[in-house]
Amino acid sequence: AAMPVSAIADTSGKKIALSNNYAGNSWRQAMLTSWNKVTGEAVKSGVVAAADAFTTAENQATEQAAQIQNMILQGYDAIVLNAASPTALNGAVKEACDAGITVVSFDGIVTEPCAWRIAVDFKEMGRSQVEYLSKKLPQGGNLLEIRGLAGVFVDDEISAGIHEGVKQFPQFKIVGSVHGDWAQDVAQKAVAGILPSLPEIAGVVTQGGDGYGAAQAIAAAKRPMPVIVMGNREDELKWWKEQKDASGYETMSVSIAPGVSTLAFWVAQQILDGKEVKKDLVVPFLRIDQANLEENLANTQAGGVANVEYTQEDAIKVIEAAK
Amino acid sequence: MPRGAVGPRGEFSWSKPTSMTGDKPKAIVEVADAKVSFGAVKALDGVTLAIRPGECVGLVGHNGAGKSTIVSVINGGLTPHQGSISADGDILAHYGINAARERGVRCVFQELSLCPNLTVVENTRILHRHLGGFGWRKRAKEVIERSLDAVFPGHGIASDRSVGELSIAERQMVEIAMAFSDAGVAPRLVILDEPTSSLDASLAEQMLTYVRHFVAAGGSVILISHILNEILSTASRIVVMKDGRIVADRPAADWTDQSLVEAMGSVVKGEAHRRATRDLAAAPVVIEQGGRGMPFRAKRGEIVGLAGLAGHGQTRMLMKLHAAKTSDWLPRRDLAVTFVAGDRRLNGVFELWSILKNLSIGSLGDLAKRGVVNAAAEAERGADWKRRIDIRTQDLANRILSLSGGNQQKVLFARALSTRAPVVLMDDPMRGVDVGTKQEVYEIVRQQAAGGRTFVWYSTEMEEVCLCDRVYVFREGAIVAELAGGAVTEENILAASFRGAEA
Amino acid sequence: MRLTISADAIRLAIPALSLTMLLAAVFWLQPRAMSYVGLNLLFNLAVPIALATIAQMLIMAVNDLDLSMGTFVSFVACVTATFLRDAPMIGALILAGVVMVYAVLGVVIHLRNLPSIVVSLGMSFVWAGLAVLLLPAPGGQAPDWVRALMTMKPPFAPMAIVVSVAIAAAAHLLVMRSSLGVLIRGVGGNERSVERAGWSVLAARAAAYGLAGFFAVLAGIALVGLTTSADANIALRYTLLSIAGVILGGGEFIGGRVSPVGAVIGALTLTLAGSFLSFLRISPDWQIGAQGAILIIVLALRLLLNRVEKREKGR
Amino acid sequence: MRMLDRVSRSPWIWSWLAAFVVWFATIMVTGGASTLDLSQAALTFAAFSIIVGIGQMFVITLGPGNVDLSVPSTMTLAGTVALKLMDVDNAMIVPGLVVAVLIGIGVGMLNYALIKALRIPPIIATLSVSFIVQSAAIWTNRGLRIKPPSFLADFTTANSFGLPNVAIIALIISIFAWFLLEKTVYGRWISAIGQSTPAAKMAGIPVDGTRFVTYVFCAVLASLAGYLLACFSGGAALNMGSEYLLMSIAVVVLGGTAVAGGDSNVPGIWGASLFMFLVVSMLNTYGLGAGIRLIMTGLIIISVIMLAGGRQPGAR
Ligand SMILES: Nc1ncnc2c1ncn2[C@@H]1O[C@H](COP(=O)(O)OP(=O)(O)OP(=O)(O)O)[C@@H](O)[C@H]1O
Ligand SMILES: Nc1ncnc2c1ncn2[C@@H]1O[C@H](COP(=O)(O)OP(=O)(O)OP(=O)(O)O)[C@@H](O)[C@H]1O
Ligand SMILES: [Mg+2]
Ligand SMILES: [Mg+2]
């Protein structure tokens, strides 16, 4: 669409930095890969002068705060941020804003008012899982909840959504809850430990990155396989496909697309370009269903995560939609 | 008199005047019928001992006789299971470290007990609980320096150095000076448990001189030593302990070297026989080492002494010899050298282990097949050495720390001698070893040397140095003289040690 | 006349030199850092780390190790961002209470002769659990006075520098100059001799732990002052950072050899090393590895300076 | 009677007792119906902690300050590289294993090289190495989860004689480790070094060689555990080792090995590993929230160490 206010300023001299707090799983790796791919082209074609990615060694807010402070010193014009904590970086973000830097947070967003937020409705993501199950299993049943890392914002949000969903569909009951830390092996271990003491499970609600581990543990215990909500990882989708082919297994898969980093990049570019952008933007989560499983599986790199990368036009659409 | 002051030699001021009237002044500390046992071991079996002002009590006995234990009782560190303690005539129900210190009881322990990470001044602060308050550093510095100057004139120890940087002898000096220092509570009874073990002759003499002055001025001292000359020349009364009991208690004048040794139950020591001079000219050199000063060289079957004042590079030479012949990376089937530690706690014993494991660790190569230890062979060798050097224990499976210091030292000897290494390095290994044991070890060394083993022997005791075929004298980290055969005499060695200083 | 440098001075000179060199490198890479604001940005997050390092150092001074430092500071941060703001009295009471808990831990560890590593490992779970209970999701807000304190702009030198110097000076007075400090280090050096001099080693250990708890509480408060809010995982890395800081500053694991000034310098060095790396613009793949490399380089520097110093001494 | 006395004084008994109590409390929830399943799950997951724990124990035995913090990243690197190399091909199982072990050897050598060359405390040296190794893992496969060869996937998740295969492997490694420690010259050497390095040196023990071998051994066990864990959980992940950092240390010290070195304990590692798994299961089973669960875990660890009585007399 032709934008009436486009190109007030030229962003070809602007420098954008990505501040990332963690690189230790496939989602983050896909996120960084998408960033490199999209921003690399943008730099080459002269849209921006630089788009450097920085990752902290440990997944720690304090380390990331230091990283942001360094970016201020390095003179970046915008910082795109996947935050270790929604609040603990506020001090550093405020300093960046005060220095005239545009801060755009995504996925792990920050609450500091001066920053932009590209958020996924994590609560809805949790609730929609139960809603799906209610259609699939109208008679209801027992649920096992696998949570993420305790004390982290995303974990709390998704879990709250799931509990909301259970309130909405009271035929379901959560009989067990474990922390899988968004890792297959941790989830596998935690599920294997609680499983022996659980009654029959109808469904497993998850947060992403933990569905395959749960399936492994349940299979090892030789229990009937419940409906496990998956999290878009390739191994999960592959397992789902195998089950589907073998026994017509049905489920759904939902997660935030790692390529959202590229959306954040374009949003930052638009803001630098002088565009009026609302502080809170929403991206839909990426959902895979029985019907489009094969298609998504084919598009997903072996061992990776189902992904969508965004273009400048996508960004403009998202910005327009928020107005 | 200002707080904590001690006049020059002699003018000690007591915080509490004692009744000096009558022939027998009240005892500073009196232990009556004390019994202490550790499990089945009766460390003290009814000991009665009183220390009066103005006397120096020499305490002798074989290793494990109970000397250190009675010291702990008097010092308040150990409560006897039976018996009473009285001080200045009052029987005390609650006697402990602080009660003892309040009464001026001080102790220099057998092992060094300063904090190596603190400076001399800070250590003084630790020792004197009441030295606190603003400006304590200055006061502590005065206290310790005054005492060091008094006990070891010309000591050259800066009080702001940390103890870890001092040599063993200097640490020992600090510790002794600390015990005699006065910061409010004057020392009245100072217990010295083998204080001269790391001091050379001249420092030991300085200390003994000071002890005599201290006693003459009315102070009391308990002196424990395995060097009988020190006891005989310094003590006014000598107490002999044996197996947790006092077996003799007489004025020093009534004792001779001979009678003391007899009372302790050891074999009468003959004149330390010098070895017949052997002709080693044809023997091959087995170990050598260059460096500043004269080169070091030792031949097969030779006993080479390292002499000189304590802390002048002898131990470093031993370490160098050891390092040159061992590898830190690869195990060696045929050991070239083996080492007997003098500082047991630092580089001798393995505290968690049994006596047997401590003994066999040096020769595991011989006791193992393809890396697996042959337990039967190990036990057999252990039993053999237990018999040969008489390690006093019921069971070699007991922990090494259940042995007395002297017996631990014997285990270290056995560890070294049971290897096949042709060269044995000995780092003043007789520290705290009793007379009887020493004689046994001398005999073993003699036999093994005759069998072709080479010994490099650092010792602070002249008598031991004189047992050597050849002696290198050290001064400031270098060899300054070599004495052989008949020239190995106390006079020559002393002359060489001091000549280096003038050069 | 031979110049004798005391071991303590050398213990300090080495970390100070490595900090200077690193700072020079940072200035060279990023001249903008050479300003009032720049220095503050470089160092302000080092303030809580320095406090935590001092706390760890006090524990290391008595030959123990605290593996719960990170979770404890996180917990304190959570208390600060909630109770200390909303109900200052209760907040202060809680913080005083946890300092007491630290002292009690010292007592228990001493009385039962427990390995501090295991006890603090257990406590790290306890603190983490309490923090999660307090703040199940990140949030809370820094009390205004804390925020004001951490963002003040003193004349001449930025807050980060002023506060670091003040921490170093206070810790130096406490640990190196006072009688209590001597006693605590004495316990690390030779527990038995302290006991034989009639002191209560138990009390000394309790004091060391209590003081450590106090400094760790300050670390948590300072951290919230910088971040404005807290979460249960906010300071987990402080455990390893504080240990590394003490070591970089010339401290040792056993023997009571510690240096408070060195510890603060160590904390500053670690913080600066991170900045140095991001100014270098390494590929994201290797950014984590570079953190390891920089630790190695800084320590290698320490070795080099040690060598030089030894040669000096040998002459 | 003497037997009972001896057992009650052996340091490993407490971790076993704690594991048993927690196990019992968990199966009681289902009236005993979950006994078999729970036991098998516990053995399966404890096996990985046991393998890394044994390596860590050897290192900790070397004396104060010795600890290997590179265990998690070594697991990750070995797992990711081996799985990438095997690429779901059963014929590549052995080369994959060889590469994993080689990675372990490499990391161990790097660890000791740094400790020795820079004379830095192992805790810092291995931490630095772990960052580098973690970077290498990121660089080699960028977090992709590649599936293990089918034979390995089946083998690691199957049981033999009612015991999980991974537990059998852990048992074999444990027996080997016990033999090394108790019966061989090498075992004596590491214990001696742990008690007093100067004394060990003067007793003619090749101190550097022994420590070097021990660090390599620890890293090899970590890489082996990484290889098995990656196969077991259906693919290697970049964060798969992270929980084994504290775990490997916790099982060693809870198992009764002296933190100050010189004294190690293989059976204790089993008790402690089972305990660490079961305590989480128990608290999950009772439906406690994360906060309470963490607090309980901590308090239980402290209680166990209090009961066990802590440091040996004579140890520093
Ligand atoms: N803490 C202890 N535990 C067990 N036994 C002990 C302990 N302390 C002393 N003993 C025993 O008490 C006896 C006497 O020991 P003590 O230290 O008094 O001997 P000693 O006369 O000082 O010997 P040495 O001349 O070797 O120093 C020893 O045989 C020893 O076995
Ligand atoms: N930690 C300990 N555990 C058990 N026994 C001990 C311990 N420390 C000392 N002992 C006992 O104390 C006795 C004396 O030990 P110590 O080392 O004080 O002897 P010593 O008087 O110095 O003898 P030596 O003249 O042989 O050195 C020993 O016989 C030993 O049994
Ligand atoms: Mg004694
Ligand atoms: Mg002795």
Overview of the structural elements:
The complex is a heterotetramer of chains A (323), B (503), C (315) and D (316). Chain A has helices at 26-44, 61-74, 90-98, 122-136, 153-168, 184-194, 211-220, 234-247, 260-272, 293-299, 312-322, and strands at 15-20, 50-55, 78-82, 102-106, 116-119, 141-147, 172-179, 203-205, 227-228, 253-255, 280-282, 286-288. By secondary structure, chain A is of the alpha/beta class. The longest helix of chain A is centred in the N-terminal third of the chain and has 19 residues, at 26-44. Chain B folds into 3 domains: 1-104 and 188-267, P-loop containing nucleotide triphosphate hydrolases (Rossmann fold, 3-Layer(aba) Sandwich), CATH 3.40.50; 112-182, no CATH class; 271-497, P-loop containing nucleotide triphosphate hydrolases (Rossmann fold, 3-Layer(aba) Sandwich). Chain B has helices spanning 67-75, 97-102, 120-127, 136-151, 168-180, 201-216, 228-234, 257-264, 314-325, 344-347, 355-360, 364-367, 375-389, 405-417, 435-450, 462-465, 490-502; strands at residues 29-38, 41-51, 56-61, 82-87, 90-92, 105-108, 189-193, 220-224, 237-242, 245-251, 285-289, 296-299, 303-308, 337-340, 368-369, 372-373, 423-427, 454-458, 470-475, 478-484. The two termini of chain B are 44 Å apart. The model of chain B is unreliable at 1-22 and 267-271 (pLDDT under 50). In chain C, helix 1 (7-29) packs parallel to helix 14 (260-280), helix 3 (46-61) crosses helix 13 (238-248) and helix 13 (238-248) crosses helix 14 (260-280). The relative contact order of chain C is 0.20. By secondary structure, chain D is mainly alpha-helical. Chain D has one domain (12-26, 36-309): Orthogonal Bundle (ABC transporter involved in vitamin B12 uptake, BtuC). Chain D has helices at residues 2-9, 13-29, 35-61, 71-86, 93-118, 122-141, 150-157, 165-183, 185-195, 197-202, 207-232, 244-254, 266-285, 290-308, and strands at 159-160, 163-164. In chain D, a hairpin with a 2-residue loop joins strand 1 (159-160) and strand 2 (163-164). Chain D is globular, with a radius of gyration of 19 Å. Residues 310-316 of chain D have low confidence and may be disordered. Chains in contact: A-C, A-D, B-C, B-D, C-D. Chains C and D meet through helix 7, helix 13 and helix 15 of C and helix 6, helix 12 and helix 14 of D. One magnesium ion is lined by residues 67-68, 110, 405 of chain B.
Helix and strand topology:
The complex is a heterotetramer of chains A (323), B (503), C (315) and D (316).
Chain A: E1 15-20, H1 26-44, E2 50-55, H2 61-74, E3 78-82, H3 90-98, E4 102-106, E5 116-119, H4 122-136, E6 141-147, H5 153-168, E7 172-179, H6 184-194, E8 203-205, H7 211-220, E9 227-228, H8 234-247, E10 253-255, H9 260-272, E11 280-282, E12 286-288, H10 293-299, H11 312-322
Parallel strand pairs in A: 1-2, 1-3, 3-4, 4-5, 5-11, 6-7, 6-8, 8-9
Antiparallel strand pairs in A: 10-12
Helix pairs in contact in A: 1-9, 2-3, 4-5, 6-7, 9-11
Chain B: E1 29-38, E2 41-51, E3 56-61, H1 67-75, E4 82-87, E5 90-92, H2 97-102, E6 105-108, H3 120-127, H4 136-151, H5 168-180, E7 189-193, H6 201-216, E8 220-224, H7 228-234, E9 237-242, E10 245-251, H8 257-264, E11 285-289, E12 296-299, E13 303-308, H9 314-325, E14 337-340, H10 344-347, H11 355-360, H12 364-367, E15 368-369, E16 372-373, H13 375-389, H14 405-417, E17 423-427, H15 435-450, E18 454-458, H16 462-465, E19 470-475, E20 478-484, H17 490-502
Parallel strand pairs in B: 3-8, 3-9, 6-7, 7-8, 13-18, 13-19, 14-17, 17-18
Antiparallel strand pairs in B: 1-2, 1-4, 4-5, 9-10, 11-12, 15-16, 19-20
Chain C: H1 7-29, H2 36-43, H3 46-61, H4 69-81, H5 83-86, H6 88-111, H7 116-134, H8 144-150, H9 159-177, H10 179-189, H11 191-196, H12 201-227, H13 238-248, H14 260-280, H15 284-314
Helix pairs in contact in C: 1-14, 1-15, 3-9, 3-12, 3-13, 3-14, 4-7, 4-12, 4-13, 6-12, 8-12, 9-10, 9-14, 10-12, 13-14, 14-15
